[in-house]
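Fold this sequence, please.
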Amino acid sequence: MEQIKTDILIIGTGGAGLFAALHAKQANPDLHVTLAVKGLVGKCGCTRMVQGGYNVALAAGDSVERHFMDTIVGGKWLPNQELAWRLCETAVERINELENEVGCFFDRNADGSLHQKAFAGQSFDRTVHKSDLTGIEIINRLMEKVWAADVNKLEEHRAIKLVRSADRSGIAGAVLIDMRSGVYRYVAAKAVMLATGAGPTMYRYHTPSGDKTCDGLNMALDLGLGLRDMEMVQFHPTGLLGGPDTRMTGTVLEEGLRGAGGYLLNGDKERFMFNYHDAGERATRDIVSRGIYQEMRDGRTTPMGGVYISMAHLGADHVAKSFPGMVKRCKDCGFDLAGGLVEVVPT
């Protein structure tokens, strides 16, 4: 078996993995850092697929405390509050790093400040974005930084097993398969980081790319490490329901559509979300997903078995300008998001 030695092995190259590699090199430029990914760096995984944006408390009238409370209340008081506070508090630092160091260019207001749009479940408009293609902006800039850094890259390599150290006190590395040649490679590392995400592709309707297959969770479990909150699978309420003739089914139609005032209609073309929550379509994702599922169970569905999202009342030109990526994506599948009805399902 071929063997590679490195200081830090990072498995996964979404936003977390690429940031980890950059931060490691910043902390110590002499470190030998290796990235391993099933696809191509910056071209696979979920970060690239993000449309909506990044929530951060920046504007006058907003605060980290308010962001934190939205997070806790939206999570039905289940989140780990220390982690939730850290998430909200460091979001300010992270968005500044993305702009000023990584080179991301987000949409701005006329006065030069960052534009923050409405998302469901928020008490304040705090979503920083790049049109409706935010993930592509973030991952492209991170990818450029990684390619410029002295980081070793094992592309099209699938990690299959974490290897314990000889004294079983820690992890000594990981075994990977070169997916092109079938060659097994053992990467010996002083530290191994799993940035592999999860794997909701076991569901009929799912959003992530097909390479998300729980590999990291499986390797951790196989090693005897504990997994927690495995029941906490998030369903996005509005995944495109495209029918059997397209593989686009499940593609997220982002939160900003409902934040901007989009309507959800059942098969009878009636708004229904106010039957389930006072916030209507701007309730949190879990509430909206359950509302849609209830309409589906009660038989009030569209021809393909979901519900409709309608944006036409906001003006077709306005929708096309505000959400160009999604309008084009829907048009490619034969649907008119700006001026018609598009069938969606929780994904």
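The chain has three domains: 2-46+143-222, 52-132, 239-345. Residues 52-132 form one domain.
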